[in-house]
Specification:
It contains 25 helices and 26 strands. The chain has 716 residues and is an alpha/beta fold. An eight-stranded parallel barrel has the order 3-12-17-20-21-22-23-24, surrounded by five helices. A seven-stranded antiparallel sheet has the order 4-11-10-9-8-15-16. Strands 1-2-18-19 form a four-stranded antiparallel sheet. A hairpin with a 5-residue loop joins strand 25 and strand 26. Helix 1 packs parallel to helix 9 and helix 14 packs parallel to helix 22. The protein starts with a strand and ends with a helix. The model has no long low-confidence stretch (mean pLDDT 97). It catalyses: glyoxylate + acetyl-CoA + H2O = (S)-malate + CoA + H(+). GO terms for molecular function: magnesium ion binding; malate synthase activity. Keywords: Acyltransferase, Cytoplasm, Glyoxylate bypass, Magnesium, Metal-binding, Oxidation, Transferase, Tricarboxylic acid cycle. Its cofactor is Mg(2+).
């Protein structure tokens, strides 16, 4: 039972009140905070409800329109005219340029990987923050980026040599020497303000001597730092270890500037369903902002404590010192407009969780803004918030108002809070420029989210007919129009040099060779950031930003014709095509297994994001976005008779047995079979059977309900 305290007419969970009043607030009194927050809720909650009702109105109108045309060929032009009529599509705004100011270079100047991590997990949160620099040798040696695997329990010299050769080839392309290969170097050294390399044929400089920015020495270890495409590469010379001893130049490692930014997530990768959970989320974010977050854990039989890394200080070219950031610039992803929380009650009712996120995460970030020493996050004096799951310009304008009110409560200058708008809902994609214009003086980030966007695509067209299988979605024409349109809008609004145009997650954390082949497509598409699931993936993906000059690509792309809105708004329907029974069964089993594998951890253990074995036992990153697309696909097929409720129940029971077996080594796991009566199994079934009527096809309402049930069962 949660204890509440009264704060200006609000009932606030006592642990949350204590956290905010004793730890979070700085520069504003508790009384002023709660007075302001109570007024914010009373003013903005009605508008939040109206916007959610507008979602329902539009969806009901679209459902009715599609239902009246069952059996007729799909007509995109007719639907576009209808969407304009009901206000789903709004007029394009007059040309504009975003006016965001005080933006850190990691956002506006440097193209590179972006990590996304659940802030509820302190160890993961610290790993992401510290992933600004990563060992290329380690990333190659320990993954399938190189063929095969290390041999033996210790260091494998042959595997190490393969990593060194791969890295030398990379260096030849990113930071080449004049007339020699890095593979031929016998010594690296600093000659005054120049970086040179000795080879058997003589001494050579860098092909671009200005690429050398400085060096540092720690005992017998010397690092030479080079710059290329606004990214840094450190050549670490240390002949004392096995790698350096085997290298003619003593090159022990190549360290890349990797995760330039990292999103600390309060949303899709987090299972926070009550005040207790929210306190954990906020306390970890606070620790990142004030710099004291640490986590102690056991690794390799010994205890380790992880803290935020210090900055990197170099003996600079030209004299003096040069300081480079030691950590990724952190953004925080708040939840969207839909969900409410029992952490704060207004007139006895739950209040919007996104509003609480806004007030508390920005207040916590003031610890960073007020620092005069120690590890800084934003050197430009900004707070970076990513706002997901907004439907259209009105909802973006509401978010802009919300963060303006939070600034007023906290005494912050207007537009201190910068917003990232996630282009992951169909109505936002269709009105993207108007949505961006609604927050043009805060905007620093737009990105595509294929999974949520596909989930909303299916839900919006739920009654138009059965959709194509999930495996075919990435080749559907609407998706290319969506991905291209996001970049087109970003360039048209002047985001070059002002913000990030991003692309979505690589969901296969163990498939690094495949990622190296595929994910170069993101910078080639003109995106100056893209999501990765781990520090190792960030290091490998960083090589793509040395291969591609994103600024030049954006200049090339800016002159192309904008992506077709007609193609964007043509849903991926089967259109009379009949699927083979085996194709349907395989897709049903695949979705049922992945849903169960994710939901059972979410509901029973409160794990919001994890590597879940798929039906072929391949680990895939799963979060609520992946869950949403699977649930919506099966709900759509169920509605249109592609599958039956009996087939769904049969698949869930069979796949529950498989998921139980996959988790047999987890002592905290609760098996679903043979009873099939636990909250996790029930939640998965509800996500499918009720998926067509869930708001926008979101999974949160069902997950939260069943997670709360599971927590009550644990407490009995």
């Amino acid at each position: 039972m949660t204890d509440y305290v009264d704060r200006h007419g609000l009932s606030v969970a006592a642990p949350l009140a204590a956290l905010i009043e004793n730890e979070v607030l700085t520069g504003v009194s508790a009384d002023d905070f709660w007075r302001g927050y109570a007024a914010l809720l009373r003013d903005l909650v009605p508008e939040n409800r109206r916007l959610l009702a507008e979602r329902d109105r539009l969806q009901a109108a679209i459902d009715e329109w599609h239902a009246a045309r069952v059996g007729q060929p799909y007509d995109t032009a007719a639907e576009i005219a209808f969407l304009k009529e009901i206000g789903y599509l709004v007029p394009e705004p007059a040309p504009f340029t975003i006016g965001t100011e005080n933006v850190d270079p990691e956002i506006c100047e440097i193209a590179g990987p972006q990590l996304v991590v659940p802030v509820s997990n302190a160890r993961f949160a610290l790993n992401a923050a510290n992933a600004r620099w990563g060992s290329l040798y380690d990333a190659l040696y320990g993954t399938d980026a190189l063929p095969g695997a290390p041999k033996g329990p210790g260091y494998d010299p042959q595997r190490g040599a393969e990593a060194v050769a791969w890295a030398a080839d990379f260096l030849d392309r990113a930071v080449p020497l004049e007339g020699a290969s890095h593979a031929d170097v016998t010594a690296y050294r600093r000659d005054g303000d120049a970086f040179v390399a000795d080879t058997k044929a003589g001494t050579v400089p860098l092909a671009d001597p200005a690429g050398f920015v400085g060096s540092r020495t720690d005992g017998g270890r010397t690092g030479y730092v080079l710059a290329h495409h606004n990214l840094h590469v450190e050549l670490v010379v240390d002949p004392s270890g096995p790698v350096g001893a085997a290298h003619p130049a003593g090159l022990a490692d190549v360290v890349l500037e990797a995760a330039i930014t990292a999103i600390q997530d309060c949303e899709d990768s987090v299972a926070a369903v009550d005040a207790e959970d929210k306190v954990l989320v906020y306390r970890n974010w606070l620790g990142l902002m004030n710099g004291d977050l640490e986590e102690t854990f056991e690794k390799g039989g010994r205890m380790m404590t992880r803290r935020l890394n210090p900055d990197v200080t170099l003996d600079a070219v030209g004299g003096g010192t040069l300081t480079l950031p030691g950590r990724a610039l952190l953004l925080v992803r708040n939840v969207g407009h839909l969900m409410t929380t029992d952490a704060v009650l207004l007139d006895g009712e739950e209040t919007p969780e996104g509003m609480l996120d806004a007030a508390v995460t920005v207040a916590a970030a003031m610890h960073d803004l007020n620092k005069t020493s120690g590890p800084r996050n934003s050197r430009a004096g900004s707070v970076y918030v990513v706002k997901p799951k907004m439907h259209g310009p009105e909802e973006v304008a509401f978010a802009d108002t919300l963060y303006g009110r939070v600034e007023e409560i906290l005494g912050l200058p207007k537009n201190t809070v910068k917003l990232g708008v996630m282009d992951e809902e169909r109505r936002t994609s269709a009105n993207l420029l108007a949505a961006m214009a609604a927050t043009k003086d805060r905007l620093v980030f737009i990105n595509t989210g294929f999974l949520d966007r596909t989930g909303d695509e299916i839900h919006t067209a739920m009654k138009a007919g059965p959709v194509i299988p999930k495996t075919e979605m990435k080749d559907a024409p609407w998706l290319k129009a969506y991905e291209d349109g996001n970049v087109d809008a970003g360039l048209a609004a002047g985001m070059r040099g002002r913000g990030q145009i991003g692309k979505g997650m690589w969901a296969k954390p163990d498939a690094m060779a495949e990622m190296l082949e595929a994910k170069i497509g993101h910078p080639m598409a003109g995106a100056n950031t893209a999501w990765v699931p781990s520090p190792t993936a960030a290091t490998l993906h960083a090589t793509h930003y040395h291969q591609v000059d994103v600024k030049a690509r954006q200049e090339e792309i800016a002159s192309r014709a904008p992506a077709s809105k007609t193609v964007l708004l043509t849903p991926p329907l089967l259109a009379g095509r009949n699927l083979e029974s085996e194709t349907v069964k395989r897709a049903l089993d695949d979705s049922a297994q992945s849903m169960l594998g994710y939901v059972v951890r979410w509901v029973d253990q409160g794990i919001g994001c994890s590597k879940v074995p798929d039906i072929n036992d391949v680990g895939l990153m799963e979060d609520r976005a992946t869950l949403r697309i699977s649930a919506q696909l099966l709900a759509n097929w169920l509605m249109h008779g592609v599958i039956t409720e009996e087939e769904v129940d049969d698949a869930l029971r069979r796949m529950a047995v498989k998921v139980d077996a996959q988790n047999a080594g987890d002592p905290a796991y609760r098996a679903m079979a043979p009873g099939y009566d636990g909250p996790a199994f029930a939640a998965t079934r509800a996500l499918i059977l009720d998926g067509a009527k869930e708001p926008s096809g979101y999974t949160e309402p069902i997950l939260h309900r069943y997670r709360r049930t599971a927590k009550k069962m644990e407490s009995v």
